[in-house]
Every structure is written in structure tokens, then in C-alpha cells.
What does this fold into?
Amino acid sequence: MFRRTVLTALASVAALTLVSCGSDTPAASPSSPSSSSASAISGTVTVFAAASLTGTFTQLGKDFEAAHPGVKVVLNFAGSSALAQQINQGAPVDVFASAAPKNMDQVTDKGTPVIFVKNKLEIAVPKGNPAKITGLPDFADKDRKIALCAEQVPCGAAAKKVFEAAKITPQPDSLEQDVKAALTKVGLGEVDAALVYQTDVLSAKDKVDGIQFPEADQAINDYPIATLTSAKNPDGGKAFVDFVLSDRGKTVLTEAGFDAP
It folds into this structure.
């Protein structure tokens, strides 16, 4: 009888303790990522992100680690279609940030995605525009060296839309698996022009020039981000997503040329 009374008392104390901890813990806010309990976030947060997010997410990863000492952010950048395939094949991932909803939808264990930025295409040419590219019609010129993204990746799908809107049949010399590969060819002078995102032109402004065109508004890309349901570190993943959505995240993304959703 005494033993049963003691156990009952201990259970009551434990229940009261849990309620007290829950009531004292402030809710996390996207505008104040540091409000997340530091003790609840630990270990490694693995983030798969579209290639066009390389610069911004590298910076945000460092900022997140600084805000949460002891936490390590591991980043993997590639074309969104390739990342979705890796995730579906079992790659251990906590957060996925795609350059298009289509590729997020391909992930079987996605959580609840939220659109966090928008982006659109711009023509990139080598510094000084030696081939004198003036606009989209030049992409139909077989004498021009042109790079495009493959259609299965978001920048390629967007390019297809703008060419259809402009009623132009492009004549690409190479089809790249992510936007950074196309941008690299421009920066090295291997092609006369490529269609990349406006953020990529800005990030490589010392090596490339950008040419805007009106049809770009016909293919604006929404970027979704989500903590995956299969995340090994769901608390860390959620905290990173909150950080991306925070004021600091918005500042980094806006300065890089991304548009608000």
C-alpha cells in the first residue's frame, strides 16, 4: 500500500513538472530565431538547397551556427530535381529548400512547405558583352554559343516558359543540370549567353553582366522550404526554417536579389 502511494505521488510530481516546463517555454517566432530554446536544438542540421541558394544559405548557415553554439549545419547544393531524387532514395535530410514547388511536390516525405522567396530569369553574358547579345532572339541564333538549364530543373522549366511566351525556339549548345553550372560557363567565357536567375547575375557581377527582358515575368519561380517528416533532427530543422523566415533571413535573401513571396 505504501509503495503504491509513493508511486502515485511521484507520477503527480512528474506531471506537474512537465506542465510547468511547457508553460515557461516561449513560443518560437520567425522574427526572433533566438527565442528557440538552445537546449532543444543540438547536433547536426542537414539542409538540401537549390543551387541558386548557395550564397545566401551558406551565409545563413554560418549565422544559424553562431546563434546556436554547438549546432552544425551541413549544406548540400544542386539542382532541385536531383536533390528531390536523392531525398526519395533515402538521403538523410532535415530541411529541403527547392527552387520550384514542382520539385518539392516530388518529395514523398515533405512536411508542410512554405514559400519564402521568389526569383526570375535574367540573361547573363560575359563582362562587357563581347558577343553583343541584346535579348532573347539571340538565343535562336545558331552562330551564338548558348547555355541553358535542362528542362527538369527549375531554371530550365522557367526558360521553356519564357521562350514559349516570346515564340522563340532556342538553339542551346549545352544543357546544364543546375543554374550555377550555366553561370560558370558564362563567367569563363565559354558561352556568349545563358539564362540564369537575377540573383545569380548579382552574385557574379564581377564576371558577368545581366540583361533583363519582359518575358521573365511570365515565369517567376516560387521557392518553397520545409522540414521533412523523415528528419533525423526535426527540432533543428524547424529552427533552421524559422531562421530563414526570420528578419535576418529576409535581409540576407533580399540583399542577394530575391523577391519577397
Observations:
- The CA atoms of residues 119 and 221 lie 5 Å apart.
- The beta strands are 44-50, 72-78, 95-97, 114-119, 121-126, 146-149, 174-176, 193-197, 208-211, 221-227.
- The two ends are 63 Å apart (CA to CA).
